[in-house]
Amino acid sequence: MSDRAAIGVDTGATRTRAGIVDERGQVLMRTERPTDPLAGTKGIIAVVEDLLERDADLDVKVECVGVGAAGFVDFPRGAVTFSPNLIYDDPFIRDAVESRTNLPVVVENDANVAAWGERAFGLAQGTSELALITLGTGIGSGFVVNGRLLRGYGGAAAELGHMVIDPDGPECKCGLRGCLEQLASGQALARMGREAVEQDPRSSILSFAGSADSITAEHVARAGREYDETARTVLRRAGRSLGIGLSNVANIFDPEVIVLAGGVVGAGEAYLGAVRDQLVAMTEAQKRRPMRLDVTSLGKDMGIIGAAALALDESST
Ligand SMILES: [Zn+2]
């Protein structure tokens, strides 16, 4: 008997990853390639065709394809309507992939599919009220509300990264100032690290990076782990901003579980501790019910598993 399975595609800024995933959330086969920043759709088709050429050895039936795409996605049309960091050579991704594979295709925002994956196979299994926050170069988010993905009128909902925390804060590419993404993401940690070493040139952030221009979030995180107080101050400030953002989330959605994912969760306890402390302080001040705050257990496969799970769920309804 062959199991149901789907191909899940995770279109990242630097790598496009894909896998064949069975209905228990197991990744049976993987592929990946560098993302061409000018041809996102071609890259998606290439990884899907690669897997379909190699799936004969597996005892599963690939029934459908799920694609997680960065940007605003018009669902169920499967078209990207706005994507600041990656150009899709054909924005009608669903139609483009369906015409090449003859399989039903579901396209969703990348953080939304991650939220769906967490609910299907991660730490948030079984909950109908969940927030998933991806902390990478930028900040993405997906919300499951009442058991359904929050999409909004035109697919532009759930953009926590552009919730304004400080209206006098740094400019954001989205046109606003002081968005959460400018205060708590990987790019924010790098910028805050550069600013901090101007005040404290003896910080080990600078010795790890070599020069101020080369400072990344990883240098700040590493210095923080080695008890560099300047780095820890940066990490705590960033974590505090995220905690404020999550408290705002609680006021709107009252999720049962908040799951954090992405490279910045590796920034260590100075950052994550500040997130938790700020969220708990604001939750207690309002006498709210405590929320579970977890780091994803799905790792790098989160996007692949979520996209495949969404495709299987959509195709069986
Ligand atoms: Zn913004």
Secondary-structure blueprint:
Blueprint: E1 3-11, E2 15-22, E3 27-34, H1 40-54, E4 60-69, E5 72-74, E6 79-82, H2 93-101, E7 105-109, H3 110-121, E8 130-135, E9 139-145, E10 148-149, H4 181-184, H5 186-199, H6 204-209, H7 217-225, H8 229-253, E11 257-261, H9 269-285, E12 292-295, H10 302-315
Parallel strand pairs: 1-4, 4-7, 8-11, 11-12
Antiparallel strand pairs: 1-2, 2-3, 5-6, 8-9, 9-10
Helix pairs in contact: 1-2, 3-10, 5-7, 5-8, 7-8, 8-9
The chain binds zinc ion.
Describe this structure in words.
- The chain has helices at residues 40-54, 93-101, 110-121, 181-184, 186-199, 204-209, 217-225, 229-253, 269-285, 302-315; strands spanning 3-11, 15-22, 27-34, 60-69, 72-74, 79-82, 105-109, 130-135, 139-145, 148-149, 257-261, 292-295.
- It is 39% helix and 22% strand.
- Strand 8 (130-135) and strand 9 (139-145) form a beta hairpin.
- The mean pLDDT is 94.
- With 317 residues, the protein is of the alpha/beta class.
- The protein has two domains: 3-122 and 299-315, 2-Layer Sandwich (Nucleotidyltransferase, domain 5); 130-295, Nucleotidyltransferase, domain 5.
- The protein is built from ten helices and twelve strands.
- It is globular, with a radius of gyration of 20 Å.
- Helix 7 crosses helix 8 (229-253).
- The strands form three sheets. The chain has a five-stranded mixed β-sheet. A five-stranded mixed β-sheet has the order 10-9-8-11-12, with helices on both faces. It has a two-stranded antiparallel sheet with strand order 5-6.
- The site of zinc ion has 6 residues, from loops.
